[in-house]
Fold:
Amino acid sequence: MLDVIQKRFQTVILSILVGLLSATFILTFGGPNSQGCSLNNQGAFAARVHGTTITEGDFRAAYQLVGFQRFPIDRARTLRLRELTMDGLVERELLAHEAERMGFTADSHDVMREVAETGVILSTPPVDAPAGYPGPEIPQSFDDRDGRFSSKNMRRFIQNYLRRSVEEFERWQVRERLAQQTRDAVLATVTVSPQEVREQYQRETDRAQVDYVRFSPVYYRDRVESGDEAIRAWMAEHTEEVDAEYQRQRHRYTGLEEQRRARHILIKASSDAPEADRTAARTRAEELLRRAQAGEDFAALATANSEDTGSARRGGDLGWNARGRMVAPFDEAQFATEPGSITDHVVETNFGYHVIKVEGRREGDVPEDEAKRELAETLYARSRAGELAREQADRALAYLREGNSMQDLDTRLQWNWQDAPAPGPDGAAPEAPERDSFAPQVRESRLFGRTDTPVSGTGAGELTRAAFERTMDEPLPGEPIQVGDDWYVFQLKQRTEATDENFTPEVQSSIREQLLEAKQTEVLRAYVRDLREQARADGQLRVNDAILLYGDETPEEEETEEAPSGDDEPAAEPEEEESTAIPPRRGAGIRA
Structure:
């Protein structure tokens, strides 16, 4: 250590000077005259922790040291720089208090000697600070232009830039050293086992990719055949479920404004379509109107012809709707038509041409039996849709087990398990039916690890575990995998595994360091949070929230001098840079 110090200061005299620096500064700037180098109101209360007061001057100096005063106020507020600075000061005192309780000490002479020798000032970053937050070591040169330590520069920096007396600065650094000793003691308890390293290696190296199909009940809900007989039978077996749903939903069936229940057949024709296309669409709609008026089953006509695919699967049923729920021409037509009747004309809207049949009218309070029947219809459709999704998933998996490819399966699903139509006379393949986002179709997953999400929105769980249980020799699962309400069938497409050959000492060392840093961060965070919660519970922590306020002007921005520079002066602080993040400093992060 002595050799290092002598080399830095060039002469034995300067080495001795560093040793006497603290006492000299106190005689010159400390004692009753020390407030002369501080702003007015430096002793104002900012926080109190276990009987120790953090003054407004302490807060300002810490804020100044890391350069936060150069941030525009709006940006500082967005980054919460004042709150983070206060958190760091409070946590420093919590840790320093613990150090004293555990018997740690810090000699002020040694602390000041090290600051002068290394040009490093300690400043505790809060445990929840974002990446790049300055600390715990803030570099600051006190050398003159010849590269020699200058006590004058150090005094100027403390007095003029930080606006602290040397005694205050010394006390600050002693508390920082005590806090660091507590941090070091806590972090020393953290270890990483060889098993943890191995497991992390496997998580990072093991990768899988699958082709999969999702079978969603949402897709099958409109395909449920809900005849009266099927619903009555279901209600008889689920009486309690229907009663409970009625109790939850009964408010929806009292005091109703007038409603209509209608079915419709839509023939699409946009308003900007060519006139010939619109005429053809209207002609087709008028033909369907005549057939419906002649007595053909309206639901069957809607299922076979309506271009509103959602309602077509329900026989054109749109459910109950109050006035204003539908576009104006449709609304006027359905409320002008008696229940059981079909409109006497084709209704034109911006969607195209509609043939409408009004099934019912209601207003006021809906009878309990009718309300329960309607709720049971919804519950039955939901239950049956789940069963259909599972049945289709079972069928798809069986199809793959017969040796068919995922591409073959996708074609089958696209044509609803029917053979694709033969090419036309011109040899062109028939146009495939449109599929909505919930329709079952083969998709490719991302490459994922054991803790990753293979399919967006599913989370790492059963699907991930099932995929890593398979091998390329046996790529299919034993049964469909349920994730939430959906069912999945997959086939392993790619798999890479962790090998001992690649688990080299260098890899192990790198993983161990990463794990150790992550564990230390989490352990220290939990430790400091516990200290804070206990101090608050014991009434030993109080923060003056006024210190945290942001305004159009602040004393430290208006009255604080810039760090001096030049011969026998400290190096100037770097100029402000445009940034969207807190500028990183040397030593940022936890010092283990």
